[in-house]
């Protein structure tokens, strides 16, 4: 179930929120857990059992780790953490990468391995990472292990962030599993944030998506620079407004339910370096890799060579985390390479207070867009040809690309491009919740009273598919 | 956030998301707006949920049941039109409020080879039907854009070129094209097509009815017998496709032949297996003072709806069936009973009906039992039929007794045989190969054009 669907918006959400606020405080976690399982089962079917198994195993491992920490028995701690990591990475490896692995072996001539494709469970990359953060946080003594499996189940399955983040590390939310503040101010703040995210997704990301889809569906070898740049520009806008819109919705829903989820984006296309970009883009993933991979690898405490190797390792893993394709690996290598290069040249600026900021922003955005070409391409050859089309003359703009440019797409592209130059945190959503005074109130009320009804109209009309009865 | 602001936001948000679900819960449903029945509530089973087969049906059910859906569709379409976008590319928005069906505009130009194929296919179909002692007439309705191109947004279509090519086919006796007559009517500002609909009006269809009657009984047509029955608000099908249902005023016409009594009755069709066919029915007409004698069968596409009241009263006995493919088993009884067969389709369908599939072979599938075969046999799954035949013979394939389904493939055209349509036919050349799945009887039939 996606947030921008009729089923979620008009049926699941009111029933879930209504039940949550109407039932007693002690039943709320159970109600939310049940709602989250329904939410997952709606799209995942029987794969919900995987989520349940993962939850039960990690709860048991967390208990073992917690017992080890409390009794100072390091063997128990190591066993519990290793068990949790093995189970979660095992699930992730099998369900996300096994198809790709077998395909590669077969293509490399290691025999014709008979293989039935595995269905990728929705959100597995997110819930496995969250589960691991629980056992690791308990092992580090940052939090105590949970005594109630329903509370842990709620942490793993909580529907607002279950399938696309933000990735909430356990220590960030552990207190809220037991004790949450509900108020009309929080509810309203969450509603405004949810409306903001839904508008970003439906009105901007979805409007420019046909341009990107058409460009990346074309024959890259015959593509001209105009079509290629248009395609990657549209994708640059689409991926940001889609993903950050989803995060806004998740954070807004969390706020309505009494949770404080971490921010996931902070105007990433205004970054002045790739290092800066990764402190603004998918922040919770960066934090997860920093806490649970980069620092355990040694972080920046060793030699500069070791630091750079650690950096590159993290980005290669982050690339693969996004999907089982060589393009994601290349994308990780590419970004890791930029970070190493910036570290070597001392150009890893992160503040707004840098010289030549507009030029740095432009160069960074260009580097990010080149990365998006690799990320969006179906294979490395396509990506190479597409990049060639961007930087050489000749070729054509496919008719499908020009056909996708309508008024909505133009307006959405305009807003997307303007987002790089807009002040404050407008597109990041912080303005919606953080802006004080009359102007802030006006924006928030407009989000809910104007933008939300219009987005609901767009969503409700999305299923219109009349039958052409006269088309014999 | 101040409490007052929070109350306003919370109130609006709660109202927006709860009103639709409350309305749904008390049983209110929207009026259907999509030319199809709303999706019913599927049977809810644990297996269906776990297999992920049920939830898409539930999504569709909830979408169709959402009370604001028609309003939302109209609002979105209105917004699109207001900002210069097209809500549905299947509809081409012309000037002066005229709408066109895009599929009728984006057909490729017919090549001379394709035109030759059209001529060949129609003449072979004529020969097959004539060999059974029946008369076959093809009536091709001009696309709206052919007759009224003035309001098209651009002229980058082959509509006119294809129309001229079809009209010029040298098969005047059994191919009726009314391009000139329709153009003259258009020049005289007669309302022959709807502005908001794909189709012609009764008045436009009357021009084709006249041509058909004159072809079957020269001098039999009379303008005097046309009467106006009502002024109605006709909902344009193209406006429904756009999501902005709208009507236009139109005059319904009828034909009343003095001294003739008419009957009209609906009859279910039977499949080859004798069961009731549930997709199409036959509408039977009789007249006591007919102009066209004998029993006629009018096979038609959606252009036949406006044609029916203008044409049916002229026949002694006629069955009107909204089906343009004669090969289906549910058509066989009516084809067998008819002395005259009239095939009505719109200009753009010539691509699909004549070029996309072989209309002549489809007629032969229906009349196969009227012909002697020069060779016959049976093939089973995995076996082939090497066609060492002279150029231009037909192979009729029929599912063997006791089979439930079978498939036959020849030249990338696959016939799926079943209880309703157990038979198919191919016009084959020498050296081809036919592939089989299931047990299939075949017979080779030679017919000279």
Describe this structure in words.
The complex is a heterodimer of chains A (472) and B (449). Chain A is mainly α and 472 residues long. Chain A folds into 2 domains: 29-108 and 119-180, no CATH class; 186-272 and 351-461, no CATH class. In chain A, 70% of the residues lie in helices and 0% in strands. Chain A has 20 helices and no strands. Chain A has helices at 6-22, 28-44, 48-70, 74-107, 124-139, 149-157, 159-162, 170-178, 184-217, 225-256, 274-277, 283-294, 304-321, 326-345, 357-376, 380-391, 399-403, 407-421, 430-434, 437-461. In chain A, helix 10 packs across helix 16, helix 12 packs across helix 13 and helix 14 (326-345) runs antiparallel to helix 15. The longest helix of chain A is centred in the N-terminal third of the chain and has 34 residues, at 74-107. Chain A is globular and about 70 Å long. The model of chain A is unreliable at 468-472 (pLDDT under 50). With 449 residues, chain B is α+β, with helices and mostly antiparallel strands. Chain B has 3 domains: 3-67, no CATH class; 100-366, no CATH class; 371-445, Jelly Rolls, CATH 2.60.120. Chain B is built from 14 helices and 19 strands. Chain B has a 7-stranded mixed β-sheet, sandwiched between helices. In chain B, strand 9 (292-300), helix 11 and strand 10 form a beta-alpha-beta unit. In chain B, helix 5 (112-131) runs parallel beside helix 14 (359-367). The mean pLDDT of chain B is 88. Classes of the chains: A mainly alpha (472), B alpha+beta (449). Chains A and B meet through helix 1, helix 2, helix 9 and helix 20 of A and helix 1, helix 3, helix 4 and helix 10 of B.
């Amino acid at each position: 179930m996606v947030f921008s669907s009729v089923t979620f918006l008009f049926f699941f959400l009111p029933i879930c929120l209504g039940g949550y606020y109407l039932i007693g405080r002690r039943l709320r976690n159970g109600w939310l857990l049940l709602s989250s399982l329904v939410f997952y089962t709606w799209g995942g079917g029987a794969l919900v059992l995987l989520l349940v198994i993962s939850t039960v195993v990690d709860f048991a491992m967390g208990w073992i780790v917690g017992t080890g920490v409390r009794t100072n028995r390091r063997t128990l701690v190591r066993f519990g953490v290793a068990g949790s990591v093995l189970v979660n990475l095992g699930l992730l490896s099998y369900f996300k990468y096994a198809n790709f692995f077998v395909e590669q072996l077969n293509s490399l001539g290691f025999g014709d391995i008979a293989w039935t494709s595995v269905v990728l469970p929705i959100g597995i990359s997110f819930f496995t990472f969250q589960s691991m953060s629980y056992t690791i946080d308990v092992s580090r003594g940052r939090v105590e292990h949970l005594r109630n499996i329903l509370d842990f189940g709620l942490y793993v399955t909580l529907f607002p962030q279950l399938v696309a983040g933000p990735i909430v590390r356990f220590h960030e939310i552990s207190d809220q599993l037991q004790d949450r503040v509900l108020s009309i101010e929080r509810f309203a703040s969450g509603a405004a944030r949810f409306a903001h995210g839904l508008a970003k997704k439906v009105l901007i990301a979805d409007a420019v998506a046909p341009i990107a889809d058409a460009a990346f569906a074309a024959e890259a070898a015959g593509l001209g620079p105009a079509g290629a740049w248009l395609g990657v520009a549209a994708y640059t806008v689409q991926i940001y407004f889609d993903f950050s819109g989803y995060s806004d919705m998740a954070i807004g829903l969390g706020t309505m339910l009494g949770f404080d989820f971490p921010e996931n984006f902070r105007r990433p296309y205004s970054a002045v370096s790739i290092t800066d970009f990764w402190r603004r883009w998918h922040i919770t993933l960066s934090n997860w890799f920093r806490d649970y991979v980069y620092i355990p690898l040694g972080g920046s405490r060793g030699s500069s060579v070791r630091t750079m190797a650690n950096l590159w390792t993290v980005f290669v893993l982050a690339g693969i985390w996004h999907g089982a394709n060589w393009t994601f690996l290349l994308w990780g290598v590419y970004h890791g390479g930029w970070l190493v290069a910036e570290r070597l040249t001392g150009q890893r600026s992160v503040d707004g207070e840098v010289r030549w900021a507009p030029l740095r922003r432009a160069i960074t955005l260009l580097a990010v867009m080149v990365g998006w070409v690799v990320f969006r391409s179906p294979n490395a050859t396509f990506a190479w040809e597409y990049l060639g089309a961007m930087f050489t003359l000749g070729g054509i703009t496919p008719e499908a690309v020009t056909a996708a440019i309508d008024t909505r797409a133009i307006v959405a592209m305009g807003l997307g491009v303007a987002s790089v130059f807009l002040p404050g945190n407008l597109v990041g959503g912080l303005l919606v919740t953080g802006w004080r005074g009359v102007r802030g109130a006006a924006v928030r009320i407009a989000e809910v009273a104007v933008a939300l009804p219009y987005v609901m109209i767009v969503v409700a009309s999305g299923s219109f598919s009349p039958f052409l009865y006269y088309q014999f | 956030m101040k409490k007052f602001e929070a109350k306003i936001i919370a109130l609006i948000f709660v109202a927006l998301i709860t009103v639709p679900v409350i309305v749904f819960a008390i049983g209110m449903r929207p009026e259907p707006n999509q030319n199809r029945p709303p999706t019913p509530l599927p049977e809810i089973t644990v297996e269906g949920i776990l297999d992920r087969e049920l939830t898409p049906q539930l999504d569709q059910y909830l979408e169709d049941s959402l009370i604001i859906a028609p309003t939302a569709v109209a609002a979105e379409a209105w917004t699109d039109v207001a900002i210069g976008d097209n809500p549905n590319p299947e509809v081409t928005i012309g000037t002066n409020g005229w709408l066109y069906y895009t599929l009728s505009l984006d057909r490729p130009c017919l090549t001379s080879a394709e035109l030759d194929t059209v001529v060949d296919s129609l003449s072979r179909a004529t020969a097959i039907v004539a060999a059974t002692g029946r008369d076959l007439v093809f009536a091709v309705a001009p696309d709206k854009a052919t007759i009224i191109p003035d309001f098209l947004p651009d002229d980058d279509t082959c509509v006119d070129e294809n129309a001229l090519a079809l009209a010029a086919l040298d098969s005047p006796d059994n191919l009726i094209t009314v391009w000139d007559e329709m153009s003259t009517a258009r020049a005289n500002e007669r309302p022959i097509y709807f502005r908001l609909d794909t189709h012609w009006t009764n008045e436009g269809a009357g021009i084709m009815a006249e041509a058909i009657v004159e072809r079957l009984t020269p001098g039999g047509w009379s303008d005097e017998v046309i009467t106006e029955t009502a002024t109605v608000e006709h909902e344009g099908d193209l406006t429904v496709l756009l999501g902005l249902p709208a009507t236009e005023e139109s005059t319904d016409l009828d034909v009343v032949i003095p001294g003739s009594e008419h009957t009209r009755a609906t009859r279910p069709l039977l499949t080859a297996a004798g069961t009731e066919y549930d997709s199409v029915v036959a509408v039977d007409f009789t007249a006591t003072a007919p102009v066209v004698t004998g029993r006629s069968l009018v096979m038609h596409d959606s252009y036949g709806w406006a044609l029916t009241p203008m044409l049916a009263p002229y026949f002694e006995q006629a069955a009107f069936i909204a089906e343009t493919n004669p090969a289906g088993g549910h058509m066989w009884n009516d084809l067998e009973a008819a002395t005259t067969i009239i095939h009505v389709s719109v200009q753009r369908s010539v691509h699909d009906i004549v070029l996309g599939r072989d209309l002549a072979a489809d007629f032969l599938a229906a009349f196969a039992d009227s012909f002697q075969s020069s060779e016959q046999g049976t093939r089973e799954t995995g076996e082939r039929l090497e066609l060492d035949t002279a150029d231009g013979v037909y192979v009729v394939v029929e599912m063997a007794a006791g089979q439930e389904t079978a498939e036959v493939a020849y030249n990338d055209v696959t016939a799926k045989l079943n209880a309703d349509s157990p038979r198919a036919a191919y016009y084959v050349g020498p050296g081809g190969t036919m592939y089989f799945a299931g047990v299939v009887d075949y017979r080779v039939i030679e017919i000279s054009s």
